[in-house]
Structure formats: C-alpha cells, structure tokens
Amino acid sequence: MASSSSSSSSSIVGMLVGLGVVLAHIHGCLGVDYKGALTKSLLYYEAQRSGKLPRNQRVQWRGDSGLHDGKDAGIDLVGGYYDAGDNVKFGFPMAFTLTMLSWSVVEYKAQLGAKHELQNALTAIKWGTDYLLKAHTEPNVMYCEVGDGDSDHSCWMRPEDMTTPRTSFRIDSQHPGSDLAGESAAALAAASVAFKSSNPAYSNTLLRHAKQLFDFARNNQGLYQNSVPVAGKFYSSSGFQDELLWASAWLYRATGDQTYLNYLGGSGNTGGTRTAFSWDDKFAGVQILAAKLVLDGKVQPSGLWSDFKSQGEQFLCSCIQKGNNNVKKTPGGLLSFGDWNNLQFVTTATFLATVYSDYLAAKQASIQCVGGLVQPSDLIAFAKSQVDYILGSNPSQMSYMVGFGSNYPTQVHHRGASIVSIKTNPNPVSCQDGFNLWFNRNAPNPNVLTGAVVGGPGANDGYLDQRNNFNMGEAAIANNAPLVGVLAKLA
Predict the structure, then answer these.
(1) pTM to 2 decimals?
(2) What are the angstrom distances between the C-alpha of 104 and each of 1, 78, 234, 292?
(3) Is 157 helix (H, G, I), strand (E, B) or coil?
(4) What is the pLDDT of residue 10?
C-alpha cells in the first residue's frame, strides 16, 4: 500500500514538475543557455579547420591536414575550412560563411565582447579570410576549390589521412565566376569592417583584395560552375546578380565610397520578394542592408530603394506568418524551407529578423505586413522561438546543436568526428576501411562535433539520428555563421 501511494504521489509530483517546465517556458522564465550555445557555435569552426593547427587549438581530436594544398598549382593554399562532413574546401559557401560571421561581428561586437567571445569570432573569421587572401593570387585570379567532391565522397577518411586528390580549381578572366568573386569580395569587405578597430593594417589588406575581386566579378561576368564544373555538382549557383549587389553593399559599408552606392542603386534589379536567404541567394540580405540605408536617411525612401526595403520586409513578413506567401512551419513551430539541410535557411532568416529588429528599433519604426503591424519586439520573439527550437524546445526535445544540452545527434554525418582521433590511434584509416569500420557502425561518433548545427528535422518535426542520413544529420559551416550573431544578441 505504501509503495502504491508513494508511486502515485511521485507521479503527481512528476506531472507538476512537467507542468512547471511548460509554464516556465511559456513565460520565458526557463533560462536557455544562449552564452553556452554561442561559445559552442564558434568552437565548431576549430573542428573544421584545414591546414597546420595552431598551438591554442581547442578541439583536440583534430590534427594537421591538407598541408600540401595548392602544390599542384605551384601556390600555397594551405588553410581555410572543410565545408561540412567531407574534406573538400568549397570556396563559394566558405566565402558566404565568412560574410555572415563578419556581419555577426559588425552588428554584435559589443555583445560578443561582453560574453568574451569576440576574439574567438575574429579568429574564426581570420582563419577563413587568410585562406581567401592566399586564394586570390592575382587581381583577376581566384582559386575556388581544393579537392574534388566525387573522389572525396567516395572515401570515408579522416582529413589527417587523406589520400584523395587535392586538385586546385580556379577562375580567371578567361574562365569567369562573378558569383564566386562577388561573394569573396563581400566576405573580405565585411571582414574589413569587423577588423577595422582591432587590426587596421589587416582590415586595409582585406579591403584592397575586396575591391579587386569586385572589379573582377563586374568586368568578367559569368557563372563560376561554367568555368569549374566540378564545383557545380555540389554548390551550383543560380545567378550572380545578387553577389554583385551584395559585394557593392558591403563595399559601401566598408568605404562610404559613392561608387558602390551608385552600383547598388543603379542595378535596376532588386530581386523581388525572396523565399529564402542562403549561400546561393543573397538578395534578401542585400534588401535588408539597403533598407538600413533608407532608415538611416542615406538614400531616398522612393523608387528602387523603396523596392529593396519593402521586398526585404515582405520576406520577414512571410517568415513570421504575416505575409502573402508565408514560409511553411512544422507542427512544432520551426520554419520549414525544405527537406535538405533545412536549418541553414532557418538560421539565415533568424539572423535577418534579429538584425532588422535592431535597425527598426533604432529609428522607432515598424513593418506594415499584410497580416498587421510588426514591431521590432515581434521580430526578436520570432528569432528567439526559432533558436529555442534548435536548442531543444521542440517535440523531440532534441538539441540540433551537437554537444548542447543532454540530448543531441550522436551519429553526425562527418568523417573526422565519426572515426577515432588520429591522436588516439595514429594508424591510417583507408578509404574503404573508413566505410566498413566507422561509417557503417551503428554507434555514437567517437568524437563530439561540439557546436555544429546539423541539417535538422523534417517537415513533421521528426529526426533520424543515423550517420547515413546526410539530409538531416550533416552539419555545414554556413549553418552556424548566422546563428553566431543571433546568439550574441540573445545571450
């Protein structure tokens, strides 16, 4: 009898505790550790490093790799980042990643400093921009990829063991790539703003290269995958007008030079209302930067500038479910853009909402959506809802940031994380042994890819934690970058 009463009372206590957790979450009293998530989101970049690792490397299971990159072309292309769970350095998404990391620092420098993460953020940017500077060997030459996706994807190897070809691919004036050169220009211009006060000499170097790359992109127009078909198999660009505008917007912000503003305002192409913001499509980002110029009184609130602003705002209206063509949501409340690496689009949309809430608040302005007036506080509440979902407030109660919370993906689709560390077992793991011994092993990865944001759940909130489920279980460097700024704001 005593045991049954104690079990019933404990179940009542359990129900009350559960109810309390729900109520606490509803009232925003449940403290999500945004600072911890911020720290981890930047730590992830150290796991993705290629090249000779520094003495202060914090992710200890990684070792040096790709030390001969660029040798086939007679240049030094050591460094930079591996893109996702593979060992290829793809220049196009890497540059976008650096633009977004830099934008995070530009907007939230004070918050990053207050949380003691500013130096880690700048270090994450510099590891990538140092590589972009190396890759830009001449004004009209840019190396855009090291390694080949096909051969790399047919092997499951630690980066430290790689035996796959490390071929270097480039664009030049005879083989143009306005999208790649434009995105690289945007990255270096944004980074020049991020480094302006702490490292002015480096900032100037970044800006010089950014200007050259913008001229290269503008004067030699074409899609980069037409020049480098192997890149197009994995990161095909849908156009380059957005990158040219994106680069001009960032160069204007970095320099104040009217030439770049004139380019942005004279393009005649505002992009229309977009359905996503990503490594491929920068129009929504351009629109939000242009909207800031309108709000700040730098340009006239009419014509093309008015179009930029209203289209950027319409994208945000659709994200917060007050637009003409709202972004789908999962039953648990996550924006649902598609089945493949959905969270990359969630983090970018969340960043735009966060940063635009600040732009509006500074001018005591709001957005007039079809579904009603939207205040800056509404945009932040939306951003917080998406971040909270990613960090575990979802039907599965799973954090989609690896290593955050107590329940997170353990079989992340990632070569380095899924194979025993070279420091634990230095014996090389061959191309096929990697598949046989590690990829096909139904057990948690031996190394935790701390801070990585995976592709995330499907349209019905379901997630399958299996290594071969790359649609959901692969993380990529572009997923994390927008989240850094949002977490800095929320922390």
Answers:
(1) 0.94
(2) 60, 26, 26, 16
(3) coil
(4) 41
CA angle 320, 324, 327 (to 5 degrees): 45
* Tens-place pLDDT, residues 93-124: 999 999 999 999 999 999 999 999 999 999 99
The CA dihedral of 457, 463, 466, 469, to the nearest 10 degrees, is -40
Looking at residue 81, what is its pLDDT? 99
| Pair 183, 206: CB distance under 8 Å | no
**β-strands 168-172, 367-369 pairing:** unpaired
Q: What's the confidence (pLDDT) of residue 1?
A: 39
pLDDT digits (tens, 9 = 90+) for 310-365: 999 999 999 999 999 999 999 999 999 999 999 999 999 999 999 999 999 999 99
- What are the residue numbers of the active site? 413, 465, 474
Domains of the chain with CATH codes: 34-490 (1.50.10.10)
3-class DSSP assignment, residue 60? coil
DSSP assignment of 306-370 equals HHHHHHHHHHHHHHTT-SSSPPPB-TTS-B---SSSTHHHHHHHHHHHHHHHHHHHHTT--EEET
Which residues lie across from 367 on neighbouring strands?
A: 374
Q: What letter would DSSP give residue 122?
A: H
Dist. CA 469–CA 466, nearest whole Å: 5
